[in-house]
Request: fold
Amino acid sequence: MSAVVESWFLILAAIAMLLGGANLFMHHSNLIYNQKPGWGYSALTLAGFLITLVAGLLKLGVPLTPQFPEHAWAGSFEEQPGVIWWLYEYIIKPSTSTMFALLSFFVASAAFRAFRAKSTEAALLLVTALIVLLGRSYAGTILSAPVGDAYSFAALTDFVIMSVINTSGQRAIVIGIALGVAATSLRILLGMDRSYLGADE
Reply:
């Protein structure tokens, strides 16, 4: 039963990706055609989308495999020095690092405002964050030195908070997202939700 559900989920995910790609192309093409404010960003988005799509489908630059040297498309599109590999190494990874480097300032500012113990929930959040930060810092190693590595403060912090509590919360969120994606895909495929066509349809 699980294999059947997984197969249907992959089918729905593939259809949803096709609809998402078509919607992305139509939306940004409309912005570029009408030259609305910010249409230059739409042009960059479309250029990146089309270049990545063509490079991935045609497997540009992918080396031949020893098992199938006569078939040019037998290798993985992620192989070095393929175009997809180059885009990931020299565009996506630096852009992601830059985004997270800038995001740290916003996280620090938001944490300063959120970690004010105005309620019980905020106090629990503040105490949990302090314990995690203490376990990840040098002070956590000093506190755990007399106890040993097996039952250190940092190890208990990672196991109890990060592995048990955090993982259970993440799994609940992922299950909810999967159910929401499946339900939304079914509604669109069955014609029950036509909001993606526009408000007038």
